Amino acid sequence: MVTIEDQIKEIEEEIRDTPYNKSTQHHIGKLKAKLAKLQDELDKRKAKKGEAKGYAVKKSGHATVALVGLPSVGKSTLLNLLTNAESEVASYFFTTLEVIPGVMSYKGAKIQILDLPGLVEGASKGKGRGREVLSVVRSADLILLMVDVFACDVNLLVEELRKGGIRLNKHPPDITIKRKDKGGVSISSTVKLTKLDKETIAAIFREYGYINADILLREDISEDRLIDSMAGNRVYTSALVVLNKIDLVSKKELEGIKKTMGDMPISIISAKDGVGLDALRKNIYEMLDFIRIYMKPQRKKVDLNEPLVIKRKSSVGDVCDIIHRTFRKRFRYANIWGKSAKFPGQTVGMRHILKDGDVITIVVTK
């Protein structure tokens, strides 16, 4: 009997052996859709059997950052420097066999950082407890891809994360899908399509069971992005490359290494010497897209010592939810001073979007 694993292997080999060109694009697109469906089905079966069980990690703080890297690149050392954790450090592989959490304090934010077991090639298929590691990474708000100057294969990490359904520094595909009772698959777009023709797009949708649907594309879509839009289990997460052990190479060598990272944002450090840690903390904070606001109780002075850390583009309603679960129901109005206010003390409702440094007074019914 042919297993799902056999089918996946067969399709992967056919895709690898088929030259990609205009005449084969349609066929390869359908193969990739079949492959993605089979992989999703395999993951579901393993989850049911308990084979894809993850680590139990309690989230805390304002955001969670996952430290991802090959074994022995300095993740544990970095965690101990940035936080109050005490992750075991040694010069041999696989020192960290569990997830070690720590908390980094920066500009009023409490940022949970997780030291994970080393990610190895084949992790997405379960090698080296890879599935458990990926289950934790999927829930992170930011991923630090840690490499060193001697083992700086960022592409290996990116590929294993991609196979695990994690998309780095990308936004979800801009596609609207509306099922209908009849009429087949209809494709329309607001942009010029140069990567796929409409026939291939329709064929890929049909592989996913969309027999009758209206599809609106707002981006020049590729087959991989198209499949991602239908898979339903993709996560889109910001990522920062952390290049360690820069003390062991010259400036010229370092510049050459940095060029191999492509367009990924990067922080360079020496965990052993404590070099670059302040810049790394700042980069982590900024990539988490935090802002700070200050609360001013009615008829009292503003508390400038204890900022409230929230995500950029948060509303007054979001702040109500943070303060107390009843505030949204009891909300009357808010007064705002700062960049988001048209004038000092402006009266606003719950939908008002706040900006960094705003001062806010929330008035609720008693």
If you had to describe this structure to a student in words, what would you say it looks like?
Helix 6 links the parallel strand 7 (185-189) and strand 8. The chain has eleven helices and 15 strands. The strands form three sheets. Strands 1, 2, 3, 4, 5, 9 and 10 form a seven-stranded mixed β-sheet that branches. Strands 12-11-15-13-14 form a five-stranded mixed β-sheet. Strands 6-8-7 form a three-stranded mixed β-sheet, with helices on one face. The protein is of the alpha/beta class. It has three domains: 4-52 and 173-231, no CATH class; 63-170 and 234-287, Rossmann fold (3-Layer(aba) Sandwich); 291-364, Ubiquitin-like (UB roll), CATH 3.10.20.
In short:
The chain has 366 residues and is of the alpha/beta class. The protein has helices at 4-17, 25-49, 75-82, 130-137, 154-163, 198-207, 223-231, 251-259, 277-287, 316-323, 327-330, and strands spanning 63-69, 100-106, 109-115, 142-148, 166-168, 175-179, 185-189, 213-217, 235-244, 266-268, 290-295, 308-311, 331-337, 346-348, 359-364.
